[in-house]
Amino acid sequence: MTLNPALTDKHIRLLQAGPEDFETIKGLLERCGLYTSSVTPEGSTYWIAELDGIPGGCIGLEHGVGASLIRSTAVVPDFRGHRLGRALVLSALTQASLRGDETVYLFSSKAGDYWQRFGFVPSTPAEVEAAIPDAPQVKSGVLRGWIQDEQVWKRAMPQPRAAG
Length: 164
Ligand SMILES: CC(C)(COP(=O)(O)OP(=O)(O)OC[C@H]1O[C@@H](n2cnc3c(N)ncnc32)[C@H](O)[C@@H]1OP(=O)(O)O)[C@@H](O)C(=O)NCCC(=O)NCCS
Description:
alpha+beta; Aminopeptidase; 7-stranded mixed beta sheet; 30% helix; binds coenzyme A
């Protein structure tokens, strides 16, 4: 098997963000041209991905009841293509699975092809609003009126069957 050299000589590390890391997260999002207004540690888990010790990407998971919302997936341009994005997405999906979520949603109008790689399929604003109305990004979309114009994606989370 031929390995891509760009993927073999770099060290990726994921860190779960604490409240003190949100300035770093907002800086990463701004460098990627993404909104930061409803980014909050309340009811959410965020991760930062480092490449060779330098913060290069982030992701958030907003928690609902039986469902979560992935948001703020961003890798700064110079760090793209090293699988930081993949590491971040898999971390968020793992936590969603561990907390027992049946469905994970996200908003993405421009990167649908990326999300389909992870098993996401199209959904609707009405569905995400009904499933996780209190998620900060959903509330922001309703309040600011952009939710109807966004493409929503969802992924069913297989849960292990109870023994016996
Ligand atoms: C999408 C993003 C997070 C990917 O980060 P990354 O660390 O480069 O991702 P990975 O290294 O895990 O994956 C790279 C692969 O994804 C593909 N890809 C990247 N952005 C894509 C997009 N918008 N649509 C489809 N595919 C995309 C690349 O072409 C590459 O393909 P390959 O594996 O065939 O070479 C990054 O490009 C980014 O921050 N983009 C701007 C913000 C954004 O679009 N966020 C996600 C939408 S909410």
